[in-house]
């Protein structure tokens, strides 16, 4: 049996390799990188290694202190950076400058400057470049992190805990992949405030940026290699500080904050951090939505960073100090009436532990407000009932207390809000299908004593049972993945079956990303794009022309928000996931084009997709006048037909034809996005991923014969023999052109053999 299975796998890889030589889909080409400027650096006394003392004295002139302030002007962050260009270009970590915060740079000479521009940032690499208005600053030369050796001596400079110009020495222990990032492992202690500081070789050249420390030992840290920084220098995506400060800011049409703290929203989620100015660190934000007449319900799903904190719902608020609050506090649920600004005017109506609250996890809390009572729910279970009538009307919203950091999603106000939990009958039916798997705590003493006399047999039986359960758990995870993927593909097909004008391209593109992320909620990103479009419209006069709207769209998307084509890590899957493109403001030509088209539609512009081979672009088709080709990957650059022809010649070596400039249908766009992911999965030798994407392609276009053949081979390779036979039979029945039917018959013959 084992030999037959092994032979089958080898045969499958032969079929797969024969069929899939080269990329399945030619992804877009990047531009040639520009050289990095290397002049005006700190002058080193010689090419010979220096002592730690000599290096520290020279390099500290280029090291800066970076502080980030909150909305009330208090310091909320401290880190390090270093000058890489004398005109004020400074490198640091993205987490040092946070987001949407004022940034101040203090040089070694004691001069302070506000950051003028966030010159470039990369969330995945945790890197940032900021620009200050300064001249003739000492700058550090950049080395080559690809040439580092294990055991190589290095020094690091920074401002740990605000202790400026601190120096530590150590060695490079090796290179490690952490969270998909290649990093330098260091035998060096890294503390708070060191982040963003330079790691230098003994000739004073930067090899990396200090990024993180190990939690389990003091003298182990990590640095981002400087060669990753070089790529960011070559492809900046500048965001003016005025715009940077508004990223993630609350939409005033939806929310009104009170009593300080930092409330931000992004992609449908709201976060809060910092201490509110109210007593006990209270801060709250009120929704502008019109509250329904009684009875009504208000709900939110939230997660706390620390269960000793407190955050949750507000209702019956007068817009000042009076309101009710229902929230977890110290891992217990609490219902409080706030009648004033201090603790003496607060009345805790209910406060107790409930097993329905899942500490450290997402929890849905809901309040139903009726004429004579208040009902409080946690994860759909009633935990409190109160007849308190201290307040009977007012606004609803969210609140936090103390130093709590919290994340909220799915805030709702309605006459009735559906339950979030699974119906017990449905859950029972599912459990019956997949079988009973016991999940208990530590083994009881009586159970141990019962099994102890037969310890050898007990060990064998228990370990056999554990191995079986582990395999069953793996199968359950596969089953869950398969159900999620099938449900998502079905939703995608349903979205694309509408007439072309009615197809929601944004929803379809988000569903493509959801194939790989079952937690993705497209509705949150729909809301975010609507919010972005409203921001563009608010800047336009009532009589704005189409050219005015196009200019406003380009300015908002590229100059203000900093969306840009990904050149540093072009083939990363994140550039194809539209939700991550929206979050990170970086993507492929096609993903940026989809975003551009959807924003354009919302501000009243007709922009369509143009699927040039190797580089997707868009075309603005005005009601009057000539159409205009636009390249969202290149900052919304206008293209002539001649420049598009030159691009195609450079990327594919073929002449431009009218066929290349045809409008891409929304279904074409989705299939091309899936094909991009299919090609990446092929490069990664990920057959499950390939099967996921090619299945979506076949279901969207059931006449895609080549894709169906690819799926047949992949199904065979992943032990889905019956499904592979279905695809092979379809091909033999329909006999589509371009398919080697002899190869299909060979596969069908293999599938018919007994195993």
UniProtKB/TrEMBL annotation:
<feature type="signal peptide">
    <location>
        <begin position="1"/>
        <end position="26"/>
    </location>
</feature>
<dbReference type="InterPro" id="IPR010496">
    <property type="entry name" value="AL/BT2_dom"/>
</dbReference>
<dbReference type="GO" id="GO:0006508">
    <property type="term" value="P:proteolysis"/>
</dbReference>
<keyword id="KW-0732">Signal</keyword>
<dbReference type="GO" id="GO:0004252">
    <property type="term" value="F:serine-type endopeptidase activity"/>
</dbReference>
<keyword id="KW-0175">Coiled coil</keyword>
<dbReference type="Pfam" id="PF06439">
    <property type="entry name" value="3keto-disac_hyd"/>
</dbReference>
<comment type="similarity">
    <text>Belongs to the UPF0162 family.</text>
</comment>
<protein>
    <submittedName>
        <fullName>Putative serine protease HtrA</fullName>
    </submittedName>
</protein>
<feature type="coiled-coil region">
    <location>
        <begin position="459"/>
        <end position="486"/>
    </location>
</feature>
<dbReference type="InterPro" id="IPR001940">
    <property type="entry name" value="Peptidase_S1C"/>
</dbReference>
<dbReference type="Pfam" id="PF13365">
    <property type="entry name" value="Trypsin_2"/>
</dbReference>
<feature type="domain" description="Protein SirB1 N-terminal">
    <location>
        <begin position="525"/>
        <end position="674"/>
    </location>
</feature>
<dbReference type="InterPro" id="IPR032698">
    <property type="entry name" value="SirB1_N"/>
</dbReference>
<feature type="domain" description="3-keto-alpha-glucoside-1,2-lyase/3-keto-2-hydroxy-glucal hydratase">
    <location>
        <begin position="267"/>
        <end position="413"/>
    </location>
</feature>
<keyword id="KW-0378">Hydrolase</keyword>
<dbReference type="Pfam" id="PF13369">
    <property type="entry name" value="Transglut_core2"/>
</dbReference>
<dbReference type="InterPro" id="IPR009003">
    <property type="entry name" value="Peptidase_S1_PA"/>
</dbReference>
<keyword id="KW-0645">Protease</keyword>
């Amino acid at each position: 049996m084992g030999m037959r299975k092994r032979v089958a796998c080898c045969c499958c890889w032969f079929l797969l390799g024969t069929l899939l030589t080269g990329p399945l889909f030619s992804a877009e080409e990047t531009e040639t990188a520009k050289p990095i400027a290397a002049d005006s650096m700190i002058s080193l006394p010689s090419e010979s290694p220096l002592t730690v003392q000599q290096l520290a004295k020279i390099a500290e002139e280029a090291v800066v202190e970076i502080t980030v302030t909150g909305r009330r002007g208090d310091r909320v962050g401290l880190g390090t950076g270093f000058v890489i260009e004398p005109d004020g270009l400074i490198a640091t970590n993205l987490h040092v400058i946070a987001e949407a915060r004022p940034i101040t740079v203090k040089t070694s000479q004691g001069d302070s400057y506000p950051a003028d521009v966030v010159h470039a940032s990369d969330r995945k690499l945790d890197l940032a470049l900021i620009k200050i208005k300064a001249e003739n600053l000492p700058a550090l030369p950049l080395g080559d992190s690809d040439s580092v050796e294990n055991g190589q001596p290095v020094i690091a400079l920074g401002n740990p805990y605000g202790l400026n110009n601190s120096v530590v020495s150590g060695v490079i222990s090796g290179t490690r992949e952490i969270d998909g990032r290649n990093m330098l492992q260091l035998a060096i202690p890294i503390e708070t405030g060191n982040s963003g500081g330079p790691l230098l070789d003994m000739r004073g050249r930067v090899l990396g940026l200090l990024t993180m420390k190990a939690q389990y030992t003091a003298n182990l840290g990590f640095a981002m290699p400087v060669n990753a920084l070089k790529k960011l220098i070559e492809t900046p995506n500048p965001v003016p500080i005025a715009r940077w400060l508004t990223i993630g800011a609350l939409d005033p049409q939806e929310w009104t904050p009170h009593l300080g703290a930092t409330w931000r929203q992004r992609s449908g989620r709201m976060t809060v951090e910092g201490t509110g100015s109210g007593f006990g660190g209270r801060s709250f934000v009120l929704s502008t939505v019109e509250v329904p007449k009684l009875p009504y319900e208000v709900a939110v799903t939230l997660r706390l960073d620390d269960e000793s904190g407190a955050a949750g719902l507000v209702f019956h608020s007068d817009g000042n100090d009076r309101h009710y609050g229902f929230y977890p506090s110290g891992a217990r649920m609490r219902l409080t009436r706030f009648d004033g600004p201090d603790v003496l005017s607060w009345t805790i109506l209910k406060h107790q532990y409930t097993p329905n609250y899942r500490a450290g996890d997402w929890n849905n809390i809901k309040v139903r407000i009726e004429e004579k009572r208040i009902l409080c729910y946690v994860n759909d279970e009633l935990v409190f009932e109160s007849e308190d009538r201290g307040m009977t009307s007012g606004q609803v919203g969210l609140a936090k207390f103390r130093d709590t950091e919290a994340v909220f999603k799915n805030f709702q106000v309605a006459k009735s809000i559906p339950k979030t939990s699974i119906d017990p009958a449905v859950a029972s039916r599912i459990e019956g299908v997949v079988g009973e798997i016991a999940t208990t705590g530590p083994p009881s003493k009586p159970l141990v004593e019962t099994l102890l006399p037969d310890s050898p047999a007990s060990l064998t039986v228990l370990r056999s049972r554990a191995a079986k359960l582990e395999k069953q758990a793996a199968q359950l995870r596969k089953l869950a993945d398969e159900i999620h993927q099938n449900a998502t593909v079905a939703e995608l097909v349903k979205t694309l079956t509408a007439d072309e004008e009615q197809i929601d391209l944004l929803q379809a593109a988000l569903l493509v990303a959801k194939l790989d992320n079952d937690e993705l909620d497209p509705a949150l990103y729909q809301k975010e794009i609507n919010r972005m479009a409203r921001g563009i419209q608010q800047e336009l006069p009532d009589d704005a022309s189409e050219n005015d709207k196009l200019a406003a769209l380009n300015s908002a998307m590229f100059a203000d928000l900093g969306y840009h084509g990904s050149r540093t890590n072009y083939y990363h899957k994140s550039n194809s996931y539209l939700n991550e493109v929206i979050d990170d403001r970086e993507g492929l030509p096609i993903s940026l084009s989809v975003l551009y088209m959807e924003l354009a539609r919302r501000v009243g512009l007709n922009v369509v997709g143009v699927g040039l081979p190797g580089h997707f672009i868009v075309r603005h088709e005005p009601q009057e006048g000539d159409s205009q080709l636009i390249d969202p990957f290149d900052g919304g650059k206008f293209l002539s037909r001649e420049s598009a022809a030159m691009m195609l010649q450079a990327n594919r070596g073929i002449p431009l034809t009218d066929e290349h400039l045809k409008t891409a249908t929304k279904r074409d766009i989705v299939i091309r996005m899936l094909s991009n992911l299919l090609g990446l999965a092929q490069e990664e030798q990920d057959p499950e991923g390939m099967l996921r994407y090619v299945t979506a392609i076949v279901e969207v276009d059931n006449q895609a014969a080549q894709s169906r053949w690819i799926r047949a081979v992949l199904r065979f390779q992943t032990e889905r023999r019956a499904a592979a036979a279905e695809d092979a039979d379809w091909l033999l029945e329909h006999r589509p052109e371009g398919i080697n039917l002899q190869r299909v018959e060979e596969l069908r013959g293999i599938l018919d053999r007994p195993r």
